[in-house]
Amino acid sequence: MGLRLYNTLSRRLEEFQPLEQGRVSTYTCGPTVYDRAHVGNFRTFLCEDILRRYLKWKGYEVVQVRNLTDVDDRTIHAAVQRGIGLRELTQPYIQAFFEDHDRLGLERAEYYPRATDYVPQMIELVQKLVERGLAYEADGSVYFDISEFPSYGSLAQIDTSALREGEREAGDQVYDKEDARDFVLWKGGERPEEGDVAVWDSPWGPGRPGWHLECSVLALTHLPQPFDIHSGGVDLIFPHHTNEIAQAEGATGKPFARFWLHAKHALLDGRKMSKSEGNYLTLDDLVEHGYRPSAIRRLLVSGHYRTELNFTLASLDDAARSVERLIEVRRRLEVSLSEDVEAPRTRLAELTQRALAEFEEAMDDDLNVAEAWGALFVLAREANSELDRAGDRVPAVEAQAALDAVASMDQVFGVLALAEGEVAEVSAEKRSWIEARLTERARARAAGDYARADAIRAALAGEGVEVEDTPSGSRWKLRR
RNA sequence: GGCGCCGUAGCCAAGUGGACUAAGGCGGGGGCCUGCAAAGCCCUGAUUCGUGGGUUCGAAUCCCACCGGCGCCUCCA
User: Fold this and answer.
1) What is the distance in angstroms measured between the alpha-carbon CA of A9 and the sugar C1' of B17?
2) Domain range holding A411?
């Protein structure tokens, strides 16, 4: 059974096969770089990262484009307000985006085009639409004529006649559209409130591209048409993706994208996470409070992408503890590797195989990560159980098989790999201080002086060092 | 008004007509282990899936109604 994905176009699960053998082309809507992205934005990006990683896990080559929106109302207003240029405004936020991106363990896409680098191509696309009678110029602006594009709105399954007309006309933005439902491709005319931060020459006079234009152009530039998968947040289904389709298909006469995937939003304490509501958290906010990216990633990819995810600090604590559990079982397997041929046989190989099969089955089912996590945690429990029975000494091949399976699943989850990089450095002095305390404590225990042993353990705990006594001696680790 | 989603144990969350006698995580209780802990394991926790009806041999899963929560409807991931 192969991978099945829920396609917004058909509103049902469809068997996924790339058009080109062995190679998947994807377009994923990226951030608007007028401010730092919040963890809700990253929830969507992480869902797409899981998709990317799983496609690779299945053996496909992936070509992914993720755009950076550096020209739209928000970037322009922010630049004007601060009296700086668009590039000057967006550059630090692009950098911040990549910092957060990497800290959350997202794999890098193949292309990160910025909208402003493609204005000539956008103009070309608009010209094509005008030539084909799908767009018209009015007072320096160009609009898409939805009445000339019969399938308009099919992605969102909206009846265009039901669209509310003229709702935005009352504000300070009055357009010369023939029909209020038409959308703007090129914004010309006088825009004193936008200063000169975003003005390009065009056949229709100075102006700037409409927001939807960039994604059509960037996808057509970097990917075949049609390409395999286009994804983004649910809020983009209408109008953004709807308009993207109209622009691209209108200009080329060919289908734009085959599969459309949409991720539901993250909530913060049960309410929509959004900048405009002031209800959001950034990765920095969380890291400053001591939360680890591995736990944040674990929480953000714990649930199905088509289900809302309620982000709370309590859930984040739970997530952190569950990551600990996996790290512990992996550590235990590593130290249990034994070349000793006398080591008792275990069921590890068999359990491992079953876990991988369950993992794949779950992921094949529209990326059901919740169930896939279940397969991993079941393996963790069973492995611990086997290790208990075997006295932590198992044949190397069996322990290695389990370790390989955990690593394989984590190639998709990407959580343990992140956690590895989070281990704090312990200075040589601190290390020797800890070792000295442990030696001292071992002596005290051997002598039956438990009061002293416990005092030393408490002192270590005060320094964030946790002590565990095992049959083969005490070991320590830093509290995470 | 239009389109759509959700309500499963204390919390998070899979399952969406029959091997469900409902995964998994976190937390709680009991036990094993330990000098005591920690870690780990074992046992325990929903006779039940928002409520009320209906369809069916069979429903958490389908239909209807109601209650509660949420998203989108022209530049929000």
Assistant:
1) 27
2) 307-420
Asked whether A35 and A97 are in contact (CB, 8 A), the reply is no
What spatial distance separates the first Cα and last Cα of chain A, rounded to whole Å?
Answer: 40
A113 preceded by a cis bond (ω within 30 of 0) = no
Mean pLDDT score, A79-103 = 96
Question: A142 and A238 share a domain?
Answer: yes
Strand B: which of residues 204-263 in chain A lie with Cβ below 7 A? 210-211, 232-240, 263
Give the count of alpha carbons within 13 A of A176, CB side only: 12
Strand B-proximal residues of A, range 95-134, CB below 7 A, are none
Neighbours of A425 (CB within 10 A): 6
Of the ranges A189-198, A265-274, A318-327, A339-348, the best mean pLDDT one: A318-327
Q: 3-state class of A7 per DSSP?
A: strand
What's this model's pTM, rounded to 2 decimal places? 0.95
Q: Which helix (H) or strand (E) element contains residue A431?
A: helix A428-446
Does nucleic acid strand B have an atom less than 7 angstroms from the CB of A478?
A: no
| CA–CA gap between residue A375 and residue A388 (Å, rounded) | 20
Domain boundary among A219, A251, A272: A272
Spatial distance between the Cα atoms of A109 and A354, rounded to a whole number of angstroms: 32
Q: pLDDT grade, residue A158 (50/70/90)? A: confident
pLDDT above 50: residue A174: no
Question: Based on the number of CB atoms within 10 Å of its own CB, is A371 exposed (0-12), middle (13-18) or buried (19 or more)?
Answer: middle
Phi, psi of A466 (to 5 degrees): -100, 135
Answer yes or no: do A175 and A44 share one domain: yes
C1' of B62 to CA of A371 (Å):
24
| H-helix or E-strand spanning residue A384 | helix A369-390
d(CA A380, C1' B24) / Å: 11
Q: How many domains does chain A have?
A: 3
Beta-bridge partner residues of A23: A20, A61
CA distance A115 to A215: 8
Check residue A269 and give its pLDDT: 84
- Bridge partners of A233, per DSSP, are A263
DSSP calls for A161-175: GGSPPSGGGGSS---
Verify if strand B has an atom below 7 Å from the CB of A307.
yes
Taking all residues of chain A, what is their mean pLDDT, rounded to a whole number?
Answer: 92
A270 CA, B55 C1': Å apart: 36
ipTM of the complex: 0.95
Q: Can you give the CATH number for the domain in which A164 is found?
A: 3.40.50.620
